[in-house]
Design brief:
alpha/beta, UDP-N-acetylmuramoyl-L-alanine:D-glutamate ligase, 2 domains, 7-stranded mixed sheet, 21 strands
Length: about 450
């Protein structure tokens, strides 16, 4: 298994002793040397594999998951790696590293193990941070997938331009197959790199364009060149994720009817719009780590509250109850007021809580979310929202409960028949990063299931 070890902790503490300016100067050469050393040590395993790399701001994990299912359904031996976890054929284990794309030696070791296990394909999430730290070097990519591009990791990269340039590096290095989202506003940044084979997908334009899209409370369906797909995945954004995966399948010689059972068999994506309960009220867990992701999740769930449910009669409007924190401590602080603005627009009840504070003051993180409230009037009855009082620190317009377990518990007590409770920010993660470089075990899903079992 690939987990954080003693070496990681030693390197973390050693780096803290080196002046930042000195480390930053030597960092690119240091990371490049490690990447090629790792590849050489394990015999450049990617040369004997078809490595499919998925990059973009949103949807990477879901697309990796769906591609893996399609390839497995076709009888291919597959390995996959990303924020949802690690997989080599039938063996799966969680990603506990707090990084989507592992370090150089770990990544090469994984590729080596996949090759040794007889895998033909490896589906890999490739992040801008991973490319910035040269983790991609020494890997021979066969296919690159672009999902979308939004503002993200600006503080780390220094600018939006440097952020997308890091992602562009993947397409510059991948010469065989490119699969591109044609609908994205930044398509031209990724669609113009040369490749032997290229396919575009979208809802409006491209080679693969979904038609007759139907969204329901239970999932969504669409038609593609006469093949109807009826999936359990909710939201229009998941249509795009399905199209990306189908595009990869097409590039590897699969037809749409043969891929249909694979997509329709997926009941859920762990931590991605994952319904833990639907009755008497819905409870959803989602990663939603960008303003656009949060908006998409809230919009989808808000629309689902308008769908009729035959088993219930609702005397009042159903509520959307939201539990959220913000971007991890010390990073992407610009997101926080945006999160507040979006939550105020879509949510009827808001509970702010801890997420991954690292070494930053959790109260200050939440205060920055709160700063976005004043610029947007909530969609719900404002007087009721103002009068709500939580069990912890309140402002009159929201509840602040730093203890995430207590925050979720409070949200469950607020939920009534027909309501939807959504908990964002952690998704399927299994730990929470706190001060001093420590990680404590944490799972939103496990906490919800435990509280539901014990009736809160």
């Amino acid at each position: 298994m690939i987990r954080e070890g003693i070496l990681d902790k030693v390197l973390y503490n050693v780096k803290k002793l080196i002046p930042k300016s000195v480390f930053n100067f030597f960092q690119p050469a240091y990371h490049s040397a490690l990447a090629y050393a790792g590849a050489a040590y394990y015999g450049f395993p990617s040369k004997d594999l078809k490595v499919i790399a998925v990059t973009g701001t949103k949807g990477k994990s879901t697309v990796v998951f769906l591609i893996s299912k399609i390839l497995e359904n076709a009888g291919e031996p597959v390995a996959a790696i990303g924020s949802l976890g690690f997989k080599i054929k039938g063996k799966e284990w969680p990603n506990t590293l707090k990084m989507t794309m592992p370090g150089r030696f770990r990544l090469q070791k994984f590729l080596h193990e996949a090759k040794k296990a007889g895998c033909k394909y490896v589906v890999l999430e490739v992040t801008s941070e991973g490319i910035k730290q040269k983790r991609h070097l020494g890997i021979q990519f066969d296919c690159a997938v672009f999902t979308n591009l939004h503002k993200e990791h600006i503080e780390s990269h220094g600018s939006f331009e440097k952020y997308y340039q890091a992602k562009q590096e993947l397409f510059n290095r991948t010469k065989s197959i490119h699969v591109i989202n044609a609908d994205d506003a930044n398509t031209e940044l990724f669609g113009n790199f040369s490749a032997e084979h290229k396919i575009f997908y979208g809802l409006k334009k491209g080679d693969l364009v979904a038609d007759k899209i139907i969204l329901t409370a239970e999932g969504m369906s669409f038609e593609l060149y006469g093949t109807y797909f009826n999936t359990h995945l909710a939201g229009e954004f998941n249509v795009l994720n399905c199209l990306a995966a189908l595009g990869v399948g097409v590039m590897y010689g699969m037809d749409l009817p043969s891929m249909k059972p694979a997509l329709e068999s997926v009941k859920l994506i762990p931590g991605r719009m994952e319904f833990l309960q639907r009755e008497p009220f819905s409870v959803v867990v989602d990663y939603a780590h960008t303003p656009d992701s949060l908006r998409s999740v809230y919009e989808t769930l808000r629309k689902s509250l308008e769908f009729p449910i035959s088993n219930f009669q609702f005397p009042m409007k159903r509520k959307l109850i939201c539990v959220l924190g913000a971007a991890g401590g010390g990073r992407d602080k610009w997101k926080r007021p945006e999160f507040g603005k979006i939550a105020a627009k879509y949510c009827d009840e808001i509970i702010l809580t801890d997420e991954d504070p690292y070494d930053e003051n959790p109260d200050e993180i939440i205060n920055q979310i709160v700063s976005g409230f004043s610029s947007q009037t909530p969609i719900s009855n404002f007087s009721r929202w103002q009068s709500h009082r939580g069990s912890s620190t309140e402002s009159g317009q929201f509840s602040k409960i730093l203890n995430r377990r207590e925050a979720i518990k409070k949200a469950l007590t607020l939920a009534e028949e027909g309501d939807t409770l959504v908990i964002t920010g952690k998704g399927s993660e299994t730990s929470m990063a706190v001060a001093g470089g420590k990680k404590i075990p944490w799972s939103d899903k496990e906490v919800v299931e435990e509280l539901l079992t014990t009736k809160y």
